């Protein structure tokens, strides 16, 4: 689900970029803003993962990576 970003938020996010920023920089900034909004909305709805579960999942993924030849 995409969280809507308002025009003032877009203008501010782009306006805060340095003068030599590229279109890619602007797009990256706007995508970050959208994803952070999504995460905050999910947290508001209680759709979170406990820290211990995140640690377990990361250990599981990293152990497979560490055991590569």
Explain what this protein looks like in three dimensions.
Helix content is 68%, strand content 0%. With 69 residues, the protein is mostly helical. The longest helix has 22 residues, at 23-44. The chain has one domain (7-66). It contains three helices and no strands. It has helices at residues 7-15, 23-44, 51-66.
Shape, please? Answer: flat
Radius of gyration: 17 Å
Query: Major sheet: size, sense and barrel closure?
Result: none
Which sequence of SSEs, written as H and E, runs from N to C? HHH
Span between termini: 39 Å
Number of strands: 0
Number of domains: 1
Which consecutive residue ranges, at least 5 long each, have pLDDT under 50? none
What's the overall average pLDDT, rounded? 92
Q: So how many helices?
A: 3
Strand content: under 5%
Helicity range of the residues?
Answer: 55-70%
Structural class: mainly alpha
